[in-house]
């Protein structure tokens, strides 16, 4: 069966510091990968999606970037965090036998102070 | 489009009653629809899906209804339990599409 993991689960970072959130998917090959952000009590905002290695589309201009160095690894980064980057970040995947259905990871809580 | 900046609407129901959560979708070309449940501090979990060639699909205690004429989707939860308290999101996609569009979400409170 397919599984998705992202880490760290929680982090508190000072303004201006870098960020790296990692996500890996197991049990499937060539998945579509996604990064979403969710502010407290709000909906889901698609940040990036990737249909293959080094193929990444950005949905919203922002202070963040994404990379996909391997087929099942997706990384969300920032060189200098802003207060407004605080939120709940969710990695997700689709494809293979799952078709269009998106499956989410456990999420990472980021607080920028 | 994605309603990410809105506060979530809330539905409050008594334990044991049936819940109905509604959703209006935006793209007439969408042919695949999904409901997700998100508990506090966790990622959304898949509940049930439906394709556009159907108007009703049933799962365990949940039923999804699709009305393509008015672009409306609903999730019915039978005999609502305290464990059903969560935020529920509807989502739409197109066959072969890479992007899933999520609705604003509805917060369900179950009163004991």
Primary descriptors:
heterodimer, A: mainly beta, 11 strands, globular, B: 112 residues, mainly beta, 6-stranded mixed sheet, 0% helix, 50% strand, disordered N terminus
Describe the protein's architecture and organization.
The complex is a heterodimer of chains A (113) and B (112). Chain A has 113 residues and is mostly beta strands. In chain A, 0% of the residues lie in helices and 56% in strands. Chain A is built from no helices and eleven strands. In chain A, strands 2, 4, 5, 6, 9, 10 and 11 form a seven-stranded mixed sheet that branches. A four-stranded antiparallel sheet of chain A has the order 1-3-8-7, with no helix packed on it. Chain A is globular, with a radius of gyration of 13 Å. Chain B is an all-beta fold. Chain B has strands at residues 10-14, 19-24, 32-38, 45-51, 56-58, 62-67, 72-77, 86-93, 101-102, 106-111. Classes of the chains: A mainly beta (113), B mainly beta (112). The interface between A and B is medium-sized, with 24 and 31 residues.
């Amino acid at each position: 069966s397919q599984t998705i993991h992202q880490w760290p689960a929680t982090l508190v970072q000072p303004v201006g510091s870098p960020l790296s959130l990692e996500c890996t998917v197991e049990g499937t090959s060539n998945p579509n990968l996604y990064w979403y952000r969710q502010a407290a009590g709000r909906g889901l905002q698609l940040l990036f999606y990737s249909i293959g290695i080094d193929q990444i589309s950005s949905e919203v201009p922002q202070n963040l970037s994404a990379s996909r160095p391997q087929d099942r690894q997706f990384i969300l980064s920032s060189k200098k965090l802003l207060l407004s980057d605080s939120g709940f970040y969710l990695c997700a995947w689709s494809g293979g036998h799952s078709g269009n259905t998106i499956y989410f990871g456990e999420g990472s809580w980021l607080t920028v102070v | 489009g994605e309603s990410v900046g809105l506060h979530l609407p809330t539905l409050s129901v008594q334990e044991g009653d049936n819940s109905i959560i509604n959703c209006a979708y935006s793209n007439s070309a969408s042919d695949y629809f999904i409901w997700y449940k998100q508990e506090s501090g966790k990622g959304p979990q898949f509940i049930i899906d439906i394709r556009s060639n159907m108007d009703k699909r049933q799962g365990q205690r949940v039923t999804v209804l699709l009305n393509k004429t008015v672009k409306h989707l609903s999730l019915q939860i039978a005999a609502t339990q305290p464990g059903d308290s969560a935020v529920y999101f509807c989502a739409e996609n197109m066959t072969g599409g890479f992007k899933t569009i999520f609705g604003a979400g509805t917060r369900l409170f179950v009163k004991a």
